[in-house]
Amino acid sequence: MTAISPARRKKLEPDPRVRVSILSAASKLVREEGVRALSVARVLSRAQLSTRAFYRHFGSKDQLVSALFLEMARVERMRLRQAMGTDLDPVRAVAAWIDGRLDLAFDDEIRSDLRQMSLEAQSQMFAAPELIAPAYGEILRPLVAELERGAALGMFPDIDPANAALSIQGVVWAAVERQWATSGCDARDLREGVQRFCLRGLGADTAMIADVLADRRSR
Predict the structure, then answer these.
(1) CB 3.0 to 4.6 Å from 150: which of 46, 76, 135, 155, for a disulfide?
(2) What pLDDT band is residue 134 in, cutting at 50, 70 and 90?
(3) Cα–Cα distance for residue pair 202/147, rounded to 1 Å
């Protein structure tokens, strides 16, 4: 009987449960010690898996980091999409997206879960932007969609939706970081200030902005 060489052995297919275990172990490590502490060996030790199991699901540590942030971003996108609803006009939907992202600064449950990962993601934008760009694209996707819809309806004249989304994210992140650093901002004032600034920058009608802010204030 002829022996089957290792090269001819059937390659095992990826197992979704193993992938989840690896991502879970990596997520906990990043939350506790940051991306710099992440290594394949430490992740596998926590997940109690073999090197072979890792490379069946990820080609490298960088691929794991990218997948980790992308998974976090998908959860955040779904949360934001739910906050935006399905029956809002584009101006209200954009305001809802901004409000949802500002929850990072003011909602204790969301803040404790996402703060460390968000800080790590932001740091990677400078250290290794190619790893984190897909995750940011995922978070911005519902915002870009509403900006495109608003531009088509004439509510946001003369904007480039993709660039406008990046600008809004920059303003929101700056506000979140300031709140994390000082804890001195009034939640309502900060939310309204950021929403007003961004909606004006998009060229939204002044009366509509006032109506949107009043509506959100009454909730």
Answers:
(1) 155
(2) confident
(3) 9
Pick the CATH number of 62-217 from 3.40.190.10, 3.50.50.60, 2.60.40.10, 1.10.357.10: 1.10.357.10
Q: How far is CA 71 from CA 17, 51, 95, 100, 110, in A?
A: 14, 22, 24, 18, 16
Q: What is the pLDDT of residues 36-88, one digit of tens each?
A: 788 899 999 999 999 998 999 998 888 888 888 888 889 889 989 998 988 78
Structure tokens at 21: 């275990």
Phi, psi of 156, deg, nearest 5? -125, 85
According to CATH, what is the number of the domain 12-59?
1.10.10.60
Residues of the chain with CATH 1.10.10.60: 12-59
Q: pLDDT tens, 182-206?
A: 877 788 899 999 999 999 999 999 9
